[in-house]
């Protein structure tokens, strides 16, 4: 593991809301450096909620809060996505991402960076439907937070092997993000799990990241944020 496992930086702030957890840096200005600390909202599903860890402080958003010194907020609900609302899955009172936007705006009116990590629960739907739902969410999010950086993580489970719809969904996501001036992070292209011991990083359900997997995801995301100029070098 990289620095996150040994991080001793105090978490500045970490809030969790929602259902039960079940180009080179030189090409882009470091916009988040203007906020001290910047407010970063992670929106997602059970991966983001920390379904595979014992304590929410071991979920990857909390670990990133330590490493990046960000004021991190989380809206994560298990079994939800851009289409999937999670109802009937035992995850509590859940809803799809776009229906949570009004509450997120009220709770977090000033967001510097929006990180969207969802879509895993939508992969059973046609790719065109997924992309359309993603586009609608991103456009509404852009209207809510016109000055925020928007980062979307391509839906990926903890495997190095892409799913069949990956190439098509990737291109559609790139087009969606171009419209809102957003940034894409692609775990497959970045090789997050290519040389990783995934078996040691998943919970007993063989799906969700355990504390080791969460630390791995956090490390890879921090590397991506550095590469895209969202975290200044030290």
Task: Please tell me about this protein's structure.
The protein is an alpha/beta fold and 234 residues long. It has a single domain (3-227), classed as Rossmann fold, CATH 3.40.50.1110. The chain has helices at 46-49, 60-68, 97-107, 127-144, 166-179, 211-227; strands at residues 13-17, 39-44, 71-76, 113-117, 149-153, 183-185. Strands 1-3-2-4-5-6 form a six-stranded parallel sheet, with helices on both faces. Helix 4 (127-144) links the parallel strand 4 (113-117) and strand 5 (149-153). Helix 3 runs parallel beside helix 4 and helix 4 runs parallel beside helix 5 (166-179).
Q: What Rg do the Cα atoms give?
A: 16 Å
The percent range for strand residues is 5-15%
Oligomer: single chain
The ordered string of helix (H) and strand (E) elements is: EEHHEHEHEHEH
The top level CATH class name: Alpha Beta
- Can you identify the CATH superfamily? SGNH hydrolase
CATH architecture type: 3-Layer(aba) Sandwich
Order of strands side by side in the largest beta sheet? 1-3-2-4-5-6
Please report the distance between the alpha carbons of the first and last residues: 19 Å
Q: State the helicity in percent bands.
A: 25-40%
Taking the sheet with the most strands, its summary is: 6 strands, parallel
Average per-residue pLDDT, rounded, comes to 87
Tell me the structural class. alpha/beta
**Regions with little confidence, pLDDT below 50 for 5+ residues:** 1-29
């Amino acid at each position: 593991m990289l620095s996150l496992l040994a991080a001793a930086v105090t978490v500045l702030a970490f809030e969790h809301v929602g259902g039960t957890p079940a180009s080179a840096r030189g090409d882009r200005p470091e916009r988040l450096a203007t906020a001290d600390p910047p407010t970063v909202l992670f929106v997602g599903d059970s991966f983001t909620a920390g379904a595979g860890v014992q304590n929410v402080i071991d979920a990857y958003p909390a670990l990133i809060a330590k490493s990046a010194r960000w004021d991190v907020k989380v809206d994560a609900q298990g079994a939800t996505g851009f289409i999937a609302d999670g109802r009937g899955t035992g995850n509590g009172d859940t809803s799809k991402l776009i229906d949570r936007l009004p509450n997120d705006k009220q709770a977090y009116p000033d967001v510097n960076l929006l990180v969207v990590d969802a879509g895993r629960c939508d992969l059973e739907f046609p790719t065109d439907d997924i992309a359309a739902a993603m586009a609608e969410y991103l456009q509404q999010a852009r209207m809510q937070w016109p000055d925020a950086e928007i980062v979307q993580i391509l839906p990926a489970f903890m495997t190095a092997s892409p799913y069949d719809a990956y190439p098509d969904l990737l291109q559609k996501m790139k087009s969606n993000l171009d419209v809102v001036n957003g940034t894409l992070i692609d775990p497959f292209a970045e090789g997050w799990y290519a040389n990783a011991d995934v078996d040691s990083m998943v919970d007993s359900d063989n799906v969700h990241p355990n504390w080791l997997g969460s630390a791995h995801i956090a490390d890879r995301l921090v590397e991506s944020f550095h590469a895209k100029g969202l975290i200044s070098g030290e």
